[in-house]
Design brief:
Length: 229
């Protein structure tokens, strides 16, 4: 099996329901800018494009709206939301505290099965770094975020972090080629995953802070670049 197919298989095995599948596919289309900010969406057209029924599509769109990736305007339509670079710094203020808490909790509470999954993600992230493979990185990032949230066993933290993940991924994808070091970011994700697998709460919290430190540096550089245009 090719590395690309293996990466996709890892994600597909964890998609769950048709609504989950529709959500993941639509989120990837939005995050990777194949559905551009301001684009008008149609449930019927998306159902045909993805080969998934309208009910799962509608439920996925509602989730994307809660996360801020789309805007549903009653009697007007569904739009892909615009990108606001300056707001990413506000997102990071919240993400830093939440992710440190979740990293420390996950290291203590993660199951043996979750440990193995974290190691698999760490391997995948490191391979994405080695190959400078942005799509593989994005897919493992989704898998990492899902497992990271699950392993913490704190439903309130999960609800909060879910609102930010898609916006953060899209911001990264749009701007990383300008100022980011994707391989470094992938390695930092892998370090968090390995600390969680090791069950080391202190190391997991430190690794999480290092990851957010890097993302904040990237975000500030991006905001400065955008402001200078």
């Amino acid at each position: 099996m090719s590395s690309q197919h293996a990466d996709q298989k890892f994600v597909d095995e964890k998609t769950g329901s048709l609504t989950d599948q529709a959500y993941r596919e639509l989120e990837e289309l939005i995050v990777t800018m194949r559905l551009q900010p301001g684009a008008v969406l149609s449930e019927t057209a998306l159902s045909t494009r993805l080969g998934i029924g309208r009910t799962p599509i509608r439920e996925a769109l509602q989730r994307l709206a809660r996360e801020g990736l789309i805007v549903i305007l009653p009697r007007k339509g569904i739009l892909v939301s615009e990108i606001n670079p300056s707001k990413q710094l506000l997102v990071l203020e919240v993400r830093r505290e939440l992710e440190r808490l979740m990293a420390r909790a996950g290291a203590v509470r993660r199951s043996d099965e979750e440990r193995e999954a974290f190691l698999e993600i760490a391997d995948g992230m490191e391979k994405a770094a080695l190959n400078n493979d942005d799509i593989a990185f994005m897919r493992y990032d989704i898998a990492f975020n899902d497992l990271f949230a699950k392993a913490a066993h704190n439903e309130y933290a999960v609800r909060a972090i879910d609102l930010m993940n898609g916006l953060s991924r899209r911001f990264w994808y749009v701007h990383y080629k300008e100022v980011a070091d994707m391989p470094l970011c992938a390695r930092l994700h892998a370090a968090v995953a390995r600390a969680l697998a090791d069950g080391d709460a202190e190391a997991a919290g430190t690794a999480s802070d290092r990851l957010v430190d890097y993302v904040e540096t990237f975000t500030r550089a991006t905001v400065g670049t955008v402001s200078a245009r």
